[in-house]
Amino acid sequence: MALCVAISTRLPLSAQTVWNGNSTVWNTAGNWSLGLPSAAQAASFGNPSGGNYNLTFTGAGTALGLTFTNAGTSAYNFNTSGFTLTVDGNGITNNSTFNQTFSGTGAVSTGATQTWTATSGDLIFNQSTLNINNTLTLTGANGISVSSTTASSANITYTGSGTGANGASFS
């Protein structure tokens, strides 16, 4: 008689907090379904209204990743206002048909190796500094535009069928 034992191992899904937009300030815990995003918790944007939202920062921000979840997700402008937004291992994914813009006098920084994907709408980086501290892959069917000062100590790879600024061309 043979005994068969099946062991199921589930990897935990990364925690995710959803923007509910009670105000326009990233650093207000009440603007998020599970409190502020963190290095262990991703930020999700799924507002289907198609409006434009300008998020401001009153301090540094961190998120495991940023995801704009569906085609109808609104256009967001992240004004870093002299602070740094650090995006960790899950990267940035734009599944919305609207462009997502990162601007202001602060910085966007990578906290781990990651991929930024412009699936349906563009990703636009106009903030003062883009700190690439780890390997970064830029990909997708839409454009990724970088017109900020890029401080890079790692590799940047361009793939996909979109186009990007500053010589970024996807093949």
What does this structure look like?
With 171 residues, the protein is mainly β. 0% of the residues lie in helices and 42% in strands. The chain contains no helices and 15 strands. The strands form 2 sheets. Strands 1, 2, 4, 6, 8, 9, 11, 12, 14 and 15 form a 10-stranded parallel beta sheet that branches. It is globular. The protein starts with 14 loop residues before the first strand and ends in a 13-residue tail after the last strand.
Task: Write out key terms for the chains shown.
ten-stranded parallel sheet; disordered C terminus; disordered N terminus; 171 residues; mainly beta; five-stranded parallel sheet
Shape: globular
- Helical element count? 0
Q: How much of the residues is beta strand, in percent?
A: 35-45%
Q: Which radius of gyration do the C-alpha atoms yield?
A: 17 Å
Distance between the termini: 57 Å
Major β-sheet, in short? 10 strands, parallel
Structural class of the secondary elements?
A: mainly beta
Indicate the low-confidence ranges by residue numbers: 1-12, 165-171
Question: Helicity level, as a percent range?
Answer: under 10%
The count of DSSP E runs of length 2 or more, i.e. the number of strands, is 15
Order of helices and strands: EEEEEEEEEEEEEEE
What average pLDDT do the residues reach? 82
Quick overview of this protein structure:
By secondary structure, the protein is mainly β.
SSE map:
Elements: E1 15-18, E2 41-45, E3 52-56, E4 61-68, E5 75-79, E6 84-94, E7 100-103, E8 107-110, E9 114-118, E10 123-125, E11 129-132, E12 136-139, E13 144-146, E14 149-152, E15 156-158
